């Protein structure tokens, strides 16, 4: 029970962090472009916690399956003033409209009740109508202004604050920023691991020793420089590993240097069968170093390596070399995260960085409802010189989202069968 709880907590923390930084990328670029961001959400479903800062409501929702940034103009504005509709207008000192109250008008003693004749809240920013049943007036709507519905304020989004009003470049960078944030997060995490734990180097030096390995029993110590094995000079850690692996159960004569003094140590590698091959092991880890520049270099190498591996895996999936039942969904990731967490914080950090790269790559796939699908429509717009009809694009994304949810259900069922049945 305790282990299950730890697995769930580890999954929520890791996956929540990945989603947070992904959506933060969208949010920062959207705000930079001047887009009104109504909500920044982690999770889906009912709200568990929320607060508002400036124009944006920040929420945590019940189901930890993703997140979103709700930008004005991405969906049709839900409130529209129609001719003949009776609303209340709250005016500022200059006579401009601050709030348009749709119900519970009695809450506001100084309200101006208007029967709407015409309203343009995107371009002209005005409302015209009749007050006192007969006097025709025109009211200018200020920025920002709000609808008040059931005592809740909803900010009005003029067209220039909407997603669709921005240039193709601004919209592209806003969508692309999410996956890029995941790659950046991975790079930073790998760099932090290098700074705190160190990074492996290919030098002929003994690293950390296991408690019961042959190396410790023979008298080798961490930091010993290996000059030669059986008279063959060692230049790198890779050469040491290959020599040890090739001589299972055979005594090896190590010529080492320790504290400026040379000495000879005999070590007999333990024979162990791995994937049908018998190899030699002496219980020594690769040497580690710590430096800022080295950590940055290692972070770049790790990020590139795992990006290449994940892209290769996706290619195998597309070509049929990788079976669908080998995929993992939230349940499988949660189980794996719990197991990794048992190995220590650095392993969990590395696992999170790998998942972040995976999230970034998957979101770049040109599939409907994913960031890559939206970028594909932007590419079509760039070629055509005009955007695709919003209703048609919306329908494609809706169908794509439904298919992704179906895939998620299939993968989740596979995970449940794999781990619990």
From TrEMBL:
InterPro entries: PDZ, PDZ_6, PDZ_sf, Pept_M50_Zn, Peptidase_M50. It is a multi-pass membrane protein. One of its GO terms (cellular component) is membrane. Keywords: Hydrolase, Membrane, Metal-binding, Metalloprotease, Protease, Transmembrane, Transmembrane helix, Zinc. Residues 198-245 form the PDZ domain. Its EC number is 3.4.24.-. The chain crosses the membrane at residues 6-29, 175-196, 394-413. Its cofactor is Zn(2+). It comes from the Bacteria. GO terms for biological process: proteolysis. It is an enzyme of class 3 (hydrolase). It is found in: Membrane. Pfam families: PDZ_6, Peptidase_M50. Belongs to the peptidase M50B family. NCBIfam families: RIP metalloprotease RseP. This is Zinc metalloprotease. It comes from Geobacillus thermopakistaniensis (strain MAS1).
